[in-house]
Predict the 3D structure of the following.
Amino acid sequence: MGYDPKNPMEGRITDLGPKYYGDMLPPVIKENKGKWLYHEILEPGVLVHVSETGAKVFTVRCGSPRLVTVSYVRDVCDVADKHCDGHVRWTTRNNIEFMVDAEEKVGPLKETLKGYGNSFPIGGTGASVSNIVHTQGWVHCHTPATDASGPVKAVMDDLFEYFTSMKLPAQVRIALACCLNMCGAVHASDIAILGIHRTPPMIDHERITGVCEIPLAIAACPLGAIKPAKAEVNGEEIKTVKVNNERCMFCGNCYTMCPAMPLADPEGDGIAILVGGKVSNAKSAPKFSKLVVPFLPNTTPRWPETVEVIRNILEAYAKGAKKYERVGEWAERIGWEKFFEETKIPFTDKSIDDYRLAYDTWRTTAQFKFTSHTAAYTK
Amino acid sequence: MAKHETPLLDELEKGPWPSFVTDLKRQAETKPECWDILGQLELSYKDRITHWKHGGIVGVFGYGGGIVGRYSDVPAQFPGVEHFHTVRIAQPSGLYYTTENLRALMDLWEKYGSGVTNMHGSTGDMIFLGTRTENLEPLFWDLTHDLGQDLGGSGSNLRTPACCLGESRCEWACYDSQEICNHLTQHYQDEIHRPAFPYKFKFKFSACPNDCVAAIARSDFSVIGTWKDNIRIDQAAVKEYMADNAEYPSNGGAHKGGDWGPFDIQKEVIDLCPTQCMWMEGDELKIDDAECTRCMHCINVMPRALRPGAEKGASILIGAKAPILDGAQFSTLVIPFIEVNKESDFEEVIDVIEKVWDWWMEVGKNRERVGETMQRVGLPTFLSVMEVEPLPQHVKEPRSNPYVFWKEEEVPGGWDRDVKEFRKRHAA
């Protein structure tokens, strides 16, 4: 018996929830859960955890493109069956972790992983650039201003040496969101790639009455740029909306609510770069990422401008920051004026906040550093 | 044989990072619709806009969410992606799998879908990416009947909760983040599957303030592990760190690839402590725990010498969200310390959750995240709703403006006054 469309509620099972995690833990994990004493990163991508029972578990972490096929997952299963008694896990950054219970099992596991070519690069531990938390992009979403999988691949190719090594001052978290709904971690990452629009929505008067709940579209605007209006369609007056283009900052939230207000545009759309966010409480409190590059074009298929800016920021940080200093801690210590000088990123009015609580971000002190930006004042 | 030419995407087969294009092409040999995914994506790379139509409302009977509908705007060109709905599958807490379970899930998806997945979605779900409407019910039938597993959440409801790996493989876990995550996911199945809220609501559980699941940034209800007694110090191990013993690398070996010189406890630990509550006394490391804010830095740097205290629990922070509408928010500290007990079926935490929901479901506006509702009514009102006494720990700093609300009953004599009485003492 299977699903019967004539009796849809017949035999239906609901509210099962997920499979119980405790039934899928590797034996060494199950036996030592809550008993771990310490850990060490043996080499990039390889960790050992030591239990108070003396037991050890060795973890090999591999990069993954997140968007993967059933064939790829079956490859993962083949590796886990061969070396890990059929156990494997994923991380919160979408890397894959294979675990074994003895050091001598690590080498053969790594050999097998290398046999899959580029599929399972080992790394992502310690003071590295680990995987990029990212979104759907043009592969599945209807509101993106850029792609996700493509830019992520281009950036990770360029920064690959930092995935497979641990030579940075601290871990660097990169995230991408293809629009400012920011599904994922863009608002709190060391370096963030954000899809943005620069053109107001178009209004499809012929469809709007049929497909939109107009008050929701009006309420969707953070700046009150949308108001009710009337228009004539085929000689008939219809209810629609009007957008005050001067007040629109292209967030796209009205399109989320109303299919008759599309705004995607090949030339207008692109990428903004934000830096300096973090979620951990270590040393400094969690920080939001700040906008430092307002626009880079969607140059398919490899986004060279975006790749270059990110490498440039990463290298300036790697050169200037102290051990344990996250990108945001570095930028705040040296001052944002120095951040822009060290990274040679042109400063524009677009980085100056003008939304609601903006005043809190302006400089209300005489403390600042003279930089190339103030050259005109120090001649 | 390629069904569509993909010169732009072919460029993304180059380079050392695993290529989603190469993977999709291999899958296309057995799942031809993968060619249409690639074909439409290539068109997007050419046009530099998305080719998915707006929205899409599909699902399974009995549930109000779990599946994200999606339709191609060029179905004649790419019939394989005419319908391309996403199915969210509830993931095990901590993302541990057996290959038996994974293979069964992959077989199911090969049978009913495109063979493309996301491992995993940002909220935590396993994502099955791309199937047709008529496959949804049969897929759900097999998922529940054969695999004993369920969908995740979407829409204005409790979304799929997620956690760090917690006690399973971390010495810093201050509570069992996996167990509470799983327990509350099961406890609130109805709230996950049938949208009843003003907007979405997320739970995330991190077992220490390193916050490996980013609870403070990515969940309306953030449970972050902590302790209330003293950091446990192994002075012998401290000496090993100070002696630069190779078996005691700083930060667990996280900086092995850099040239940072010999370990310097003063520079790398004591001087970086945010409250300056650590010092050396002879060759003993001292911590004034009353001044410690439990940021984790010293423990992170010397994992063999320092451990979180033994009286463990969690802080509860509420209200994180992304920018839309009123700006991004981190969660705000509401409960400084709470015990996280499996023995009580997590009743203490459940009480807090239900106080938030009882109130927010009533006063939250349409599509208003709880963090925005908190801002609208103000933190003092929210704390009184939560029946929490205001504490200095609730603020970074006291307010600087003097625009203070008082309740009438707090003021002797109340607000009902007669101006004529006032004039007797103060002529106009």
User: Anything to note?
Assistant: The domain at 232-307 of chain B is CATH 3.30.70.20 (Alpha-Beta Plaits). Chain B touches chain A through 141 residues (CB under 8 Å). The mean pLDDT of chain B is 97. Chain B has three domains: 7-145, 162-228+311-394, 232-307.
